[in-house]
Design a protein that fits this description.
single chain; 14% strand; 39% helix; binds nicotinamide-adenine-dinucleotide; alpha/beta; four-stranded mixed β-sheet; 10 strands
Length: 437
């Protein structure tokens, strides 16, 4: 065992800044407040409930993950954020309709004290939304400077030691990289000339990263996943993670597909459909926002199944993903998957999955974990893309020229080995020959 990396202390106050106080953000904040008061358990959170095995299986050493690495405590978190609606966090949580009033009322004062700052917003990028709480500025550069002021004001008001910013705003329209995204210089020019290829989420990402804050993207839009902002992150020492929280149907896909592939079972088709009735569902009802989500959801199977390596099993796979906006269900999504499998001698089989999930209940522990791990990354001195956090995302950010790792179990191993590496513990390879020597 080596000494591990030097880690700045986890103490002090940490600001958790969220863009968009919608279903995911309010469920995260209200949940953390409820856990702090001992009203509920942080189920689904690796940082709060996970353990990490150290050394050989015979040593029986599996400390709690948050005792193994120094993480900020839940009591140290202070919440702030932006939204295009003026509702405070309590009202927003009521509108989102994820948590029951009985639990919200027990943390009402703390929630009601969180009032969103005016947002950077342009309907060009989210067509189904409009709201009054929006900043004005001549250029996108002006808007970025206003966000930087918000960040600095919040820090001094609450005497914060560190901050993390996470985009939990709506999914923006589908965009691909342009010249303005290729270098920091081009990007900053684009901010001044109001380049249309710089949407609101990139302006937030720019402001956060320029301030050296860790930044994550809970949605699938490009946001910080462009060379210009990765370059800025390396300059300012900002760790980055994204994109698109891996919850619901895609979470199950990345659990089941690696298993089918491990046994070399063929897949001829995978048809996924969902009904969803929250505001996210409404935004995704716009074909341009849906296209961003669809790309994020569809890439998963190709990378896991590797049809180029296994053409007989996966080269003809028909993968279809549908999201249907259906208001009566609110945040309680229902997903159906039909998987057409191929077995020995080409015999067909079918697998049906019906997942009645709660989207934001699956998302909230991820937001918490990503915030705490990004804060750790910052204290360790990691900057730029944090691929070890791909465990949490549908379209993990990754280095150019590398394919992303989507298999949930490889992702978890990568995450835990990164923690072992940080602490100087031997990495676990699962070879295990020594038990039989
Ligand atoms: N719920 C999940 O499980 C889940 C999973 C993966 C990804 N996501 C993504 O996370 C994001 C949030 O999801 P949600 O269910 O909370 O949606 P939501 O619609 O309830 O909340 C989004 C909030 O962002 C606000 N917003 C939009 N643009 C903004 C801007 N430019 N500045 C400030 N605020 C802005 C909206 O007003 C809204 O209140 C969505 O993009 C969604 O696709 C959610």
């Amino acid at each position: 065992m080596s000494d591990g990396l030097s880690i700045a202390p986890a103490g002090g106050k940490v600001g958790l800044l969220l863009v968009g106080l919608g279903a995911v953000s309010t469920t995260t904040i209200a949940g953390i407040l409820a856990v702090r008061k001992g009203l509920a358990k942080p189920i689904g959170s690796l940082t709060q409930m996970g353990t990490v095995r150290l050394g050989k299986r015979t040593e029986s050493r599996s400390p709690a993950l948050n005792e193994f690495v120094p993480l900020a405590g839940l009591d140290s978190l202070v919440f702030g954020g932006w939204d295009i609606f003026e509702d405070d966090c309590y009202e927003a949580a009521r509108t989102a309709g994820v948590l029951e009033t009985a639990i919200l009322d027990q943390v009402k004062d703390e929630l009601a004290a969180i009032k969103p700052w005016p947002a950077v917003f342009d309907r060009q990028y989210v067509k189904r939304l409009d709201g009054p709480n929006v900043k004005k500025g001549k250029t996108k550069k002006d808007l970025a400077e206003q966000l930087v002021e918000d960040i600095r004001r919040f820090k001094s008001q609450h005497k914060l030691d560190r901050m993390v910013l996470i985009w939990c705003g709506s999914t923006e329209v589908f965009m691909t990289e342009t010249a303005a995204h290729q270098s920091l210089a081009a990007f900053e020019k684009g901010l001044e000339s109001n380049d249309t290829s710089i949407p609101s989420s990139m302006i937030y990402a720019y402001a956060a990263i320029r301030e050296g804050l860790p930044y994550a993207n809970a949605a699938p839009n490009l946001s910080a996943d462009v060379p210009a902002l990765v370059e800025l992150a390396q300059q300012t020492g900002a760790p980055l993670a994204g994109k698109d929280l891996k919850t619901g149907q895609t979470l199950l896909k990345t659990i089941i597909a690696p298993g089918l592939k491990a046994r070399l079972l063929g897949v001829a088709g995978w048809y996924s459909t969902n009904i969803l009735g929250n505001r996210d569902g409404e935004v995704l009802d716009d074909p341009e926002s849906f296209k961003t989500k669809e790309e994020s959801k569809k890439s998963v199977l190709d990378y896991i199944l590797q049809p180029s390596l296994y053409p007989d099993l996966y080269s003809d796979l028909h993968h279809v993903v549908r999201i249907n906006y259906y208001p009566p269900r609110g945040d309680n999504k229902e997903g159906w998957d039909n998987i057409d499998l191929v077995g020995w001698l080409g015999y067909p089989m079918q697998l049906k999955i019906n997942f009645l999930c709660r989207d934001s209940i699956l998302a909230a522990p991820i937001v918490l974990d990503v915030a705490l791990f990004l804060d750790l990354a910052k204290r360790v001195g990691f900057s730029g893309i944090q691929e070890w956090l791909s465990f949490y995302f549908k379209s993990p950010m990754h280095a150019r020229g590398l394919y992303p790792e989507h298999d949930l179990f490889i992702q978890l191993m990568k995450l835990k080995n990164t923690l072992r590496y940080i602490r100087g513990e031997p990495l676990i390879t699962h070879l295990g020959r020594e038990y039989y020597d």
